[in-house]
Specification:
Bound molecules: fe (ii) ion
Helix content: under 10%
Radius of gyration: 21 Å
Largest sheet: 6 strands, antiparallel
Distance between the termini: 28 Å
Number of helices: 4
Number of domains: 1
Strand order of the largest sheet: 1-2-6-5-4-34
Structural class: mainly beta
CATH architecture: 7 Propeller
Strand content: 35-45%
CATH topology: Methylamine Dehydrogenase, Chain H
């Protein structure tokens, strides 16, 4: 394995005992290219052709205050498959904040857990005092990779093959773009939303396959909200107004504290995909980080996602002083997300709800060809109690309501595992789950492929990565035909 290393970025990060700056969350600072990765076991299938992209948070500078893992600088990792071979590269997203801090040789912005006065310069997004690190999510649209930030950043475009940052997506509105824009592979369209502290507080937008903004409309809500994800069907986009949002009284003093308003319903906005009148539906109060999929069925819109039983959990008592709150909000076993189905009846305006699985799981993936359409299979992840670390995968058959799982060995953690359809496949689950692993026992990382038809077999192919990567958030699969 021949590794080409790029010149180092400037760093001021110092060793610490921070729970999310050590172990599987140890930041990776080097950027490399590897043309021909070595296989550890199995063979790289000839029928996987495309790229897996993964965004992560890798802080380059010593934090000004209390580091939160969502503050780190965006780094995109790529493994590219073709002809039974695989290559790898990783690059920081060269955001405007990243460039400013390289020049200043230190942090210029505080983080999510810090008071706003730590920021030395105006920040970005709904919060307003954070750096847009473009580190949350990544999708591929109109032949380009698009990295995004959960607090609504500017949206950065990268060459999906070289990972070179090409600049800001030209169509992003003044209020930015949230993480989790949705690409409909059937039409080539990208749907997005943003949220802010000023009326109308929420917007929906659509960008065509031609990379031009076609729809941008307000979806007014009663005040600042914190939606994290959206969903779509063939004819509609689904935005949300969930009752976990910044405490309005504290927000007047510029303090950003999330409060769960148990007396308020969850509200869902059904927006015509090409814009138009919004219809609202109500449901039981909860918060949802991620949706799995949505589709139309008769008079109903079906939405699947992860219903949180305790959106604002008690701080972890055994955490390092000052970090109990953060540890609880990063621990799925504290906020308890469970696969759940909402049905919105367009004829009579009612909502029906149903729990699909009682297990704690989140970060779900599907065969993206079925996004917005009827589907049968979801692939979720499970986490280590107490930690934001993926320890295994669950495949749910939504038709039979049966599920199967594969759990990683102790001390080995996964990345989000998107579905890569096998070249020429027709069946929904005929393909591979692709994930990067962090092996804390051996201090190294690898890429694994699982046969999505039977994940219980474990990895069918293991490929060595050139360095130990850091844990992170979101990943995507883009087939060769998506790469322009
Ligand atoms: Fe997310």
């Amino acid at each position: 394995m021949s590794v080409r290393r790029l010149p180092s970025v400037l760093t001021s990060l110092e060793p610490s005992s921070h729970p999310y700056l050590n172990g599987a969350w140890t930041p990776l600072l080097e950027e490399v290219d590897v043309d021909d990765l070595q296989v550890i076991s199995g063979t790289i299938p000839e029928d996987i052709d495309g790229i897996y992209l993964r965004n992560t948070e890798n802080p380059v500078h010593q934090p000004l205050g209390r580091y939160h893992p969502f503050d780190g600088d965006g780094m995109v990792h790529q493994i590219a498959f073709s002809g039974g071979k695989a290559s790898y590269r990783n690059r920081f997203v060269r955001t405007r904040g990243f460039a400013a801090e390289q020049e200043a040789q230190g942090s210029l912005w505080g983080g999510l857990a810090d008071p706003v006065h730590l920021a030395k310069r105006p920040g970005w997004g709904a919060h307003g005092a954070l750096k847009d690190s473009s580190s949350t999510d990544i999708v591929v649209h109109a032949g380009k990779a698009l990295s995004t930030f959960y607090q609504c950043g500017e949206g950065y475009r990268l060459d999906p093959l070289t990972l070179e940052t090409e600049g800001l997506a030209p169509w992003v509105p003044i209020d930015g773009i949230s993480a989790h824009p949705k690409v409909d592979e059937a039409t080539g369209e990208l749907m997005f939303f943003n949220y802010s502290k000023h009326p109308p507080y929420l917007h929906y937008g659509l960008v065509g396959a031609d990379d031009r903004l076609k729809v941008y409309q307000p979806v007014p809500v009663a005040g600042p909200r914190l939606p994290h994800d959206m969903a779509f069907t063939e004819h509609y986009a689904i935005l949300n107004d969930l009752p976990a949002f910044w405490d309005a009284n504290l927000l007047e003093r510029n303090i950003h504290a999330v409060r769960f308003h148990e007396g308020l319903p969850s509200r869902f906005a059904i927006v015509p995909r090409m814009g138009g009148e919004v219809r609202w539906f109500e449901a039981a109060p909860t918060y949802v980080l991620h949706w799995l999929n949505a589709y139309e069925e008769g008079d109903e819109i079906v939405l699947d996602g992860y219903f949180q039983e305790d959106p604002t959990p008690e701080p972890h008592a055994d955490a390092q002083p000052g970090y109990g709150h953060m540890m609880a909000y990063l621990d799925e076993h504290s906020f308890k997300p469970k696969l759940h189905r909402w049905r919105f009846n367009l004829k009579d305006g009612t909502t029906r709800e149903e729990r699909l699985d009682e297990r704690i799981m989140e970060f779900g993936m599907i065969n993206a060809r079925h996004a917005g359409r009827p589907y049968r299979y979801g692939y979720s992840t499970v986490t280590k109690p107490g930690w934001f670390l993926f320890t295994g995968f669950v495949k749910t058959d939504l038709l039979t309501r049966q599920s199967t799982s594969y759990m990683l060995p102790e001390g080995v953690y996964a990345s989000e595992a998107p579905f890569a359809p096998r070249v020429g496949s027709l069946d929904e689950d005929d393909g591979y789950l692709v994930s990067f692993l962090i092996d804390e026992n051996q201090g190294r990382s690898e890429c694994v492929l699982l046969d999505a038809r039977d994940i219980t077999k474990g990895p069918i192919c293991r490929i060595a990565l050139p360095h130990k990567i850091s844990s992170g958030t979101h990943a995507v699969w883009a087939g060769r035909d998506m790469l322009g």
